[in-house]
Amino acid sequence: MIAFVRGQVAALTLNSAVVEVGGVGLELMCTPGTLAQLRTGSSATLPTSMIVREDSLTLYGFADEDEKAVFELVQTASGVGPKLAQAIVAVLSPDGVRTAIASDDVRTLTKVPGIGQKGAQRIILELKDRIGVPTGTTAAAAGAPAAWREQVHQGLVGLGYNAKDADKAVDAVAGEAGAAPDVRSLLRAALRSLSKA
Question: What keyword terms does UniProt attach to this protein (predicted)?
Fold first, then answer.
């Protein structure tokens, strides 16, 4: 198996990067976050996971080893293939995945396209004992935004807005949250965004 790829980035597409290694261009399927760190013509080292199927060999590239480890672990849950696993690490950070599974947070997992309520519950059930604890300071950083998001969302729903509109409003004000989010001012900003819509 190919554990990592090091070489010059020859091309970037919406969902992949071509890295030249020894005169051969290897296409790596990557998340938007990983692709954003790469520049055509620059040198890159990407941890990889090779998925072998009857009709294909596909290389997935990652920003770091932690993202790769979570990608490989979530595929051990039934019903999770490489494309869905990649969507999980694209939407949630590795510590975000660990936190969601450890805290039975079905709602966070269902934000990933392709995961419904039952799928999220199955992933939590099958991986809870194996996912481990959040590894770094990103756990605290990921926890704080989740807290303000939930509070603003609940406030909007309590005021009579439906969950879908509340989600859109929370996303609209996410840029204003900063390091120490003030829930009251964010709720006011979310209400302003809903009144404009």
Answer: Cytoplasm, DNA damage, DNA recombination, DNA repair, DNA-binding
Task: Summarize pLDDT for 101-135 with one digit per residue, the tens.
Answer: 988 899 999 999 999 999 999 999 999 888 887 77
* Full residue range of the structural domain in which residue 48 is found: 4-61
What pTM value is reported for the model? 0.66
User: Domain check: are 55 and 90 in the same one?
Assistant: no
Q: Characterize 26-57 residue by residue with b for buried, 16 or more Cβ atoms within 10 angstroms of its Cβ, and e for exposed.
A: bbbbbbeebbeebeeeeebebbbbebeeeeee
71 within some domain: yes
Give the pLDDT score at 174. 79
Residue whose token pair is 């859109």? 168
Who contacts 64 (Cβ-Cβ below 8 Å, separation ≥6)?
47
| Cβ atoms of 30 and 48 closer than 8 Å | no
Write the burial class of residue 121 (CB in 10 Å: 0-12 exposed, 13-18 middle, 19+ buried). middle
